[in-house]
Amino acid sequence: MDFNVNSAIRVTQLGAYDSGANGFAGPVQVGIFSRTSQSLVGLSASLTTANTTTSGDGLNRYFDVTDFDLGPGQYSIVAVGFDSFDLNGNTGFGGVPPTIDTGGGLISFVGLSRYTFNTSLVFPTIVDGGPANRYDAGTFQFVAVPEPGTFALVGLALSAIGLARRRRD
Questions:
Q1: Residue 138 — left, alpha, or beta (φ > 0 → left; ψ -120 to 50 → alpha)?
Q2: Is the pTM of this model over 0.85?
Q3: H helical segments located in the chain
């Protein structure tokens, strides 16, 4: 699924659709690619039933990754390894239209997706049409990246608290 990052985000988990909420028959590879360079960014993950946890809605399984940041740009979340036992969750292929979360506008889904007949985790070059909530194979969890000024304000607040405590002593 293609998406744009509008304001920097921190990816904390990579995930994949879990048809039947019963785990994966085999490993499912998930990664985020830059659509500009067609290269893998951040980390990729090999999801298995043993190393993932189910989401609260029971539709996806997530793998904790070392957090990595995505700056503003064009990206695609890619998942491979689905088969007749582990359906990819795309509408028309075992899934129902997923709920998409833009993080309050931090990201936006462009309504396109990509696919390949390659079983390796590579940038898929065949473009498929939308709508954006038609696709649900790969997914991820993210948070906003704090602005540098936020750290300065926190530091200033902690300094003020320390100074106030010192004056009371």
A1: beta
A2: no
A3: 148-168
